[in-house]
């Protein structure tokens, strides 16, 4: 009877004019304590006709504080209402075609979740998420023992490795068999590495897209030279690595006068007011977004955003008194995230303990730049996994092959880690390049031999 409390009628989702099949959604607590007030909202779908009955994919968006329902509705769910679409459509690259999928709004303070946020760091976050999963398995006991895959994007590059590490290091806590992780355009390291060092190179690579004037370009080149960004990749990123990489200055963000990323953003917006940090190719008109966040800035809409509509809340068993927004105004880490970046801490251990790990990055993403990924984990500091630092051989061009398409970026696998770069895709790869996301997930789950 308890399952009926969470049942979602697949024929009664507002604006969806096709049957998406049965699913279950609602709130579950993060612990079994009698007075537990903190609850996370989830939406759980069983596998479609082609999906595996033996596996479970967990998905989280990033932020911190951005809702995983954005991932469900606009990236990898069974129905899609993406930017510019007049109405929802069926998603033939839904991850439910792979297995059961669990989208969770976490941590507390995100989306429909309930209670006061109190986490101090990623260890606290992992503890609460695993507590939620324990409660989920008590309700959906048929999922116990399934193979688990932790996935997400953006700040989930911090969330997911810490959650995975917590599960690996506490094997008796959760009756799921963690197999590996998949993280897209992830935040793994210091801002200076993922944003500042590669920013000017990125503008030069896409010079005709940014269309900045020569005065602005000259200023950027001068700052990059003065701040030790210029030539950094050529000098320090070698295969195999020569050793730990130095920071270009004293700051893990940017030394005074060295914040080229924000300077580029200001110039780009001046030239192209529709400039989208998540996909640099966008220009006017900015597409309408049913979730109210179609680019660099949130947009005010005449109608409520989809998940803030009363009829939608009723259909998916969501609390009616919550004002839902794609990214929360609540500080989900009340005093900031006290954890170090995952690449410098838990990620090597997670890769070693996983069957496979996939890091995938859109080449048209400016908020987290693909070239910064090369610095971030493959060469930064002394991060080792499976006995060596970084990749030992270079990433080959045009090595990511999409079935029926051909080369659509680059791919490289060493010692249990697969890194994929996707041409034309921005930050949200399942949204911008759903076939690439789907194929790389098939690889993670062992359904194919190469990504």
From TrEMBL:
Keywords: Carboxypeptidase, Glycoprotein, Hydrolase, Protease. Belongs to the peptidase S10 family. It holds the Pfam family Peptidase_S10. This is Carboxypeptidase. GO terms for biological process: proteolysis. It comes from the Eukaryota. PANTHER family: CARBOXYPEPTIDASE (PTHR11802:SF479), SERINE PROTEASE FAMILY S10 SERINE CARBOXYPEPTIDASE (PTHR11802). Its EC number is 3.4.16.-. The keyword Protease applies. GO terms for molecular function: serine-type carboxypeptidase activity. It comes from Agaricus bisporus var. burnettii (strain JB137-S8 / ATCC MYA-4627 / FGSC 10392) (White button mushroom).
């Amino acid at each position: 009877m308890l399952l009926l409390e969470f049942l979602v009628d697949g024929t009664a989702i507002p604006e969806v004019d096709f049957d998406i099949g049965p699913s279950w959604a609602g709130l579950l607590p993060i612990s079994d304590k009698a007075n537990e007030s903190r609850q996370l909202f989830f939406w759980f779908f069983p596998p479609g006709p082609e999906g595996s009955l033996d596996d479970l994919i967990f998905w989280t968006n990033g932020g911190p504080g951005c809702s995983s329902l954005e991932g469900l509705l606009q990236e990898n769910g069974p129905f899609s209402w993406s930017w510019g679409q007049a109405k929802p459509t069926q998603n033939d690259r839904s991850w439910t075609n792979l297995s059961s999928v669990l989208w969770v709004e976490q941590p507390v303070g995100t989306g429909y979740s309930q209670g006061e946020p109190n986490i101090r760091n990623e260890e606290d976050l992992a503890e609460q998420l695993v507590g939620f999963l324990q409660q989920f398995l008590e309700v959906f006991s048929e999922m116990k023992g399934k193979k688990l895959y932790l996935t997400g994007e953006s700040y989930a590059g911090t969330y997911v490795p810490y959650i995975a590490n917590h599960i690996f290091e506490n094997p008796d806590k959760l009756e799921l068999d963690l197999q590996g992780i998949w993280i897209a355009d992830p935040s793994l390291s210091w801002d200076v590495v993922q944003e500042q060092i590669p920013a000017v190179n990125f503008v030069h690579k896409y010079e005709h897209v940014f269309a900045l004037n020569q005065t602005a370009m000259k200023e950027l080149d001068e700052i990059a030279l003065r701040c030790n960004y210029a030539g950094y990749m050529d000098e320090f990123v070698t295969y195999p690595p020569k050793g730990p990489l130095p920071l270009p200055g004293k700051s893990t963000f940017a030394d005074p006068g060295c914040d080229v990323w924000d300077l580029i953003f200001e110039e780009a917006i001046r030239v192209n007011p529709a400039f989208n940090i998540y996909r640099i190719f966008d220009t006017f008109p900015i597409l309408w977004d049913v979730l109210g966040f179609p680019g660099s800035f949130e947009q005010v809409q005449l109608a409520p955003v989809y998940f803030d509509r009363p009829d939608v809340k009723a259909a998916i068993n969501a609390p009616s008194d919550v004002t839902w927004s794609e990214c929360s105004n609540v500080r989900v880490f009340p005093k900031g995230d006290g954890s170090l970046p995952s690449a410098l801490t838990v990620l090597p251990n997670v890769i070693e303990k996983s069957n496979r790990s996939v890091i995938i990055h859109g080449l048209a993403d400016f908020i987290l730049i693909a070239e910064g990924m090369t610095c971030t984990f493959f060469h930064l500091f002394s991060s080792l996994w499976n006995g060596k630092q970084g990749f030992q051989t270079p990433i080959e061009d045009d090595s990511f092959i999409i079935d029926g398409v051909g080369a659509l970026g680059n791919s490289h696998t060493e010692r249990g880690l697969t890194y994929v770069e996707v041409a034309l895709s921005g930050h949200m790869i399942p949204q911008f390049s759903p076939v690439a996301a789907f194929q790389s997930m098939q690889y993670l789950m062992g359904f194919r031999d190469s990504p």
